[in-house]
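Batch manifest line 247
LIGAND: zinc ion
JOB: complex structure
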Amino acid sequence: MPRQCWAASLGGCNRISGEHVIPRAVLEASGQRSVSTEGLARMPTGTVGTSAMTANILCNHHNSLLSPLDETLAALQRWQVAMGKPGAQHELRLHGPRLERAVLKLFLGTLASGWGAAAPTLRQFDLEVVRSVFGTTPVPMGCGLSVGHNTWNSRQRSMEVAVSTLNSSMADGTVQPQCVVVVLNGLPLLFSTSPTLLADIRSFKPKVDFGQGLALDLAAMEFQYHPSTFICDMNGQNYRLLLDWPT
Ligand SMILES: [Zn+2]
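JOB STATUS: finished
ARTIFACT:
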């Protein structure tokens, strides 16, 4: 398999990096050397070492340009891991478009690495999609990030990192990934490529399969598109995630 940077259409590539499909900073946010993962085809479900989770899908240049996105996801993960512990911050404010781009980067990484359990492997993407990750083209209105209400039961909440895609079968027989659902410590983040996806989810009630028999009903999760405030209730304590969406 040729090693190729998925951002090659932007030009300026240098040496391919050992990119983490799930950002290393996210994996390390819990302060452990391994994480519990589900929904990655090339990884055993269960606990895996963080050093094992690399794929040759981005060059060093493009990888380093995107490190602020990884840090945004890591900040969210660290905040969640600290919940309920002494000194935990009850509020986290993030830049919404940056979090959105971070989830899109993870989506493309999952597809480029072939790690998505049910998704096709795609090596290259439309230039506009790649530019969206780098913030030079806006994510089309109605597409992008939605956040799910916290409907996890205790077992699901134990998932530290879970990734799955929802795919459509096209008339020509190909499978087209429509969205990714990334679950960080029980918080579902969905990136949609279609403005009608949330309405479709309510109508068709699809399930996403995270492996190990764990399939989640997306309709039951009540995703909110571009929410500004997300309140997580944990052991009677409120934790507020604030997302800024500049107009
Ligand atoms: Zn590159």
